[in-house]
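Retry 2 of 3 after timeout on previous attempt. Resubmitting structure tokens to design endpoint.
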């Protein structure tokens, strides 16, 4: 009888342990983004129900600056960032890993100015609004280089992206370094583009990143996330009108305006992501190294970085 009671006792303990495991809350996978056309397939995936039953949660930030801060502080597990921002995090000692390339800017990042400023050279002495991020400084630096100007030749006004439109409308700035959907709104307000990222091809990548320790701990969650992303990208390609209408409601522009904004972006599909990030010679490494060199020359990086480590390789 004693053995029977012991077996019942141990069985009860096992059942309690199993119940405790089953009741354990699922650890969230929080993703920080700001409003940008190339990030929208994440929200499209959510709208299409791709994240149902998964621990993915979107955390919308007002600017890139806030997204970087949240990722750096561990408030989120993943973040949508530009490659230059990722290199700066790596420089600071973070083990950042690229999960997939979200988009490549080919005209979507812009310097916009008032009608009286006809060329880049006319920016001399003018007030230029720019976010205090690596991308803002990089875009402005590349634009000024093209005009033969230096940062000291303009009056830099630090602005987060959520302040760009109001600063222009109120007359606080003469030009602004910005992107969609602010670009479309400023076009309606009379601003025009004096420089865009099509003049610096394959230099501005947007990527989804996490930390190495989180990736090692949760590989299946990230694999599901990647699958959801590529399904949403495929839906955008095959059903552009419906996808654009879903996205437009969220970001406050029309479906046509959203599709027009994609003219300045390349959104890589699964095959293109494989070419960029995998194999013996991932295609993203050469432009990433060129970007790192340019950032060092512009003093946006003060130490060497290793782009290959972003892909889990030893590399440089």
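Retry 2 succeeded. Sequence:
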């Amino acid at each position: 009888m004693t053995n029977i009671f012991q077996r019942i006792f141990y069985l009860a303990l096992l059942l309690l342990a199993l119940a405790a495991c089953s009741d354990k809350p699922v650890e969230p996978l929080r993703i920080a983004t700001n409003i940008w056309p190339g990030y929208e397939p994440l929200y499209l995936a959510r709208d299409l129900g791709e994240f149902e039953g998964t621990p993915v949660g979107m955390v919308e930030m007002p600017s890139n600056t806030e997204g970087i801060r949240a990722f750096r502080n561990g408030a989120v597990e993943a973040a949508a960032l530009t490659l230059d921002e990722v290199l700066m995090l790596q420089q600071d000692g973070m083990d950042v890993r690229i999960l997939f390339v979200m988009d490549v800017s080919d005209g979507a990042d812009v310097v916009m100015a008032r009608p009286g400023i006809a060329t880049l050279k006319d920016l001399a002495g003018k007030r230029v609004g720019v976010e205090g991020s690596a991308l803002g400084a990089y875009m402005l630096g590349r634009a000024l280089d093209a005009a033969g100007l230096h940062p000291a030749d303009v009056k830099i006004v630090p602005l987060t992206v959520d302040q760009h439109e109001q600063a222009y409308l109120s007359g606080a700035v003469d030009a602004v370094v910005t992107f969609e959907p602010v670009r479309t709104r400023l076009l309606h307000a009379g601003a025009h583009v004096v420089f865009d990222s099509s003049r610096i091809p394959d230099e501005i990548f947007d990527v989804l990143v996490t930390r190495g320790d989180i990736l090692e701990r949760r590989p299946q969650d990230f694999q599901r996330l990647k699958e959801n992303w590529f399904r949403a990208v495929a839906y955008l390609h095959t059903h552009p009108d419906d996808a654009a209408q879903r996205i437009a409601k969220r970001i406050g522009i029309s479906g046509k305006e959203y599709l027009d904004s994609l003219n300045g972006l390349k959104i890589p599909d699964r095959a293109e992501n494989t070419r960029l990030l995998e194999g013996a010679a991932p295609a993203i490494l050469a432009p990433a190294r060129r970007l790192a060199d340019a950032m060092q020359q512009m003093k946006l990086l003060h130490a060497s970085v290793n782009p290959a480590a972003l892909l889990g390789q030893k590399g440089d």
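Attempt log closed. Residues 2-23 form the longest helix (22 residues).
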